[in-house]
Amino acid sequence: MKKILILMLFCGFGLSTYMFGQSPSRVPATPYPIKVAQPNGDTITIRLFGDERKHYFTSIDGYVIVKNAEGYFCYAAINADNEVIASKYKVGKRGMCMRRYLKKMSKNERLKKNIL
Fold first, then answer.
1. Torsional class of 12: left (φ above 0), alpha (ψ -120 to 50), beta (otherwise)
2. Which of 54, 80, 85, 90 is deepest in the core (most CB within 10 A)?
3. What angle do CA 60, 40, 50 make, to 5 degrees?
4. What is residue 5's three-state secondary structure?
């Protein structure tokens, strides 16, 4: 009897929450930089923007980054279909090639809009 009463109480609470529209609200991303490990063991610092439904990552200096199929954070690029994809340049230590690539690439607002 006690179990049935508790079950009815929880069901009533769930139904009243549903009926009165008390759904959970969106939670914003942390405003602080986050340290994450790349699959090869390198540690990088990234920022997260948005909420749990729509969000994107940036490098600490503002370049949009995405994860590739191997799990590495790479600098984002836009393909011919106007989709955000991972470039071949992984976030981490910057060599000459990567610096040249980043110099050509802007901290593109279009990337952020395509993600959101």
1. alpha
2. 90
3. 35
4. helix
Q: Distances from the Cα of 40 to the Cαs of 37, 44, 115, in angstroms?
A: 8, 11, 26
Give the whole-number percent of the chain exceeding pLDDT 90.
26
- pLDDT of 7-61, one tens digit each? 444 544 554 555 555 555 677 878 899 999 999 999 999 999 888 788 889 998 8
Dihedral of CA 68/115/52/12: which sign?
Answer: negative
- Burial classification of residue 93, based on how many CB atoms lie within 10 Å of its CB (0-12 exposed, 13-18 middle, 19 or more buried): exposed
pTM above the 0.90 mark?
A: no
The string over 22-58, giving b where at least 16 C-beta atoms fall within 10 Å of a residue's C-beta and e elsewhere, is eeeeeeeeeeeeeeeebeeeeebeebbbeeeeeebbb
